[in-house]
Design brief:
mainly alpha
Amino acid sequence: MRDSPQATDSASVVSTGPRSPDPPTPFRLAPRFRGEVALAVVAGAFTLAQLLLVRPVLGLGWDESVYVSQVASHAPAAFFSAPRARGVPLLVTPVAAWSSSTVLLRIYLAVLSGFALFLALRAWRGVFPAQVLATAGALFATLWVTLFYGPQAMPNYWVAVGALAGTGCFLRAQANRFDRAALWGVGLSAALMALTRPTDAVWATLPLLVVLVCVRRWRPALMVALVGGLAAGAAEWVIEAYVSYGGLAQRLSDASRIQGGLGWNIAVGDQLSALGGRTLCRPCTSAAPPVLETLWWYVLPLLAALAAVVAIRARRPASTLVPLACAASAAFPYLFMIGYAAPRFLLPAYALLAVPVADLLAHLVRAPGRIRRPLTVALLTLTLAGHLAAQLVVLADTVRRTTAAHREWAAVAAGLRRLGVRPPCLVTGENYVPIAYYAGCASAATGGHDASTTAAGIRRTARRQPAATLVAPGADPPGYARSWTPHQVAGLRVYIAPAPAATDTDGAAGGRVVPRYHAHGAVQPPGTTGLG
């Protein structure tokens, strides 16, 4: 019976009965999309950290007040000195042109800076693995100086992400002549840098220009993209030089003078002193910060050298040596050509160094050995955790001090309003630029790099509209304000001009102080950098 047809048919029926459904296949992202998600997570965490740690309530600083006032709806434009460029005012226009809210502006810049970091890291896809790029983004984004300046209306962060994106696109375009997106990336990144800081853009891209000229298989299209992007971004700055500053040579000369005169000035020690949270070190006479806060800065050149050795041994030198060269070039003028320091000046170098250093860390983690590899991972984890803790301590202290200083400016502005100094109005003297911005007034100076009027011009304006001069404790008021009424406001002596007359007998053009772009004067107003 076993071999009978009936048995066979019966077995066949049993075997072909209803089958249980197959288990569902787990959803998995393609490797490329997993990499994009990792970069997006880093960029999103960067934005969130800015909002939580720096906080949108931080008031505008001196240089920020200059940039934002160029497009602000509630305050007249402040004097725009020769080194500055119009890229930052253009970036803040979508918010500042219609709203005076600093909180809204900070949120907008935090989101925009996070998105820019994502795009800059994504520009390196195909050059390094996504894990390396995510690590590089985390290394750069967790520096206190990156977190502090990400949501600020300042140009240095934007030069940094432009340099990072442009270098990555350059390597891709050099390797693949059909990568049109990379060519566009090179041009747009160069334009972004030149639009925000033209001179920094030249220094950051100088090694790329050298590579294009010196290598045998250089690509004309890549040269056109790079040079065209630089020219397009710097065009407004050059045109403005001839319209308002007496020509390009004169503007470059004025910019050099405002920065203390470009020349051989070793500022390495100044930069080291500023790492403890000093936003401007001019003059740099304080002691160096604690070693735990600066150790990473000592180690960074060593890590860069080791990254170069690893890349050369792996026979892929270009992907590491090119960003290292761009980082060195971007840092050179701020380490050896100016006589003061600000941590933000080196942001482009830090962004470019992050990728080779991240690749080095990945190489160390992948080192073979049952004992060596776990030990390396444990040591790196502890080291990076300590580094992050030190960065957060410096950031918290910097935010606290800066917030307190800006609140004092806001208190002075509120005091001016109580004394009757309301728009349209004029403010001069101690910290006059940010306080004038907070009060909605025009700002003016009769001397220094930001000189924009004369004592006679201020007196004429004071007859037409409310005017105030701010004087530091122990200092004497300027000659034009000695007969004005003194008051004490938030630690400053404030001299208020007599109530303006109902008519303008001097014909002072509506009472406005019209800036005149001249270069006399050698004393820099307190608090301004001249560099932005």
